[in-house]
Amino acid sequence: MAFAVEVGSARMWLWWNRICMLGPMRVVVDWELCESNALCMAAAPEVFEVRDDDLLYLLDEEPGEELRAKVEQAVRSCPKAALTIIE
Q: Quick one: which of 10, 17, 52, 85 has the most CB atoms within 10 Å?
């Protein structure tokens, strides 16, 4: 992923990587798409929880970098593509 940054009158393209982060990650759930399949909870139980009422609960909207790999796995495993990470 690339993004443009204005530097004086020039535009520079910077490439995203795990070292160059724009800020903390934020987890967003599209509640219209979510079916509470609990696959996200299996990948990142510190962030997602499906309770006895069969609803998904987002436990940590801005998890730390130490949970990034788990959250990314949760996003990939969602069969409805209801999860997004925003930087």
A: 85
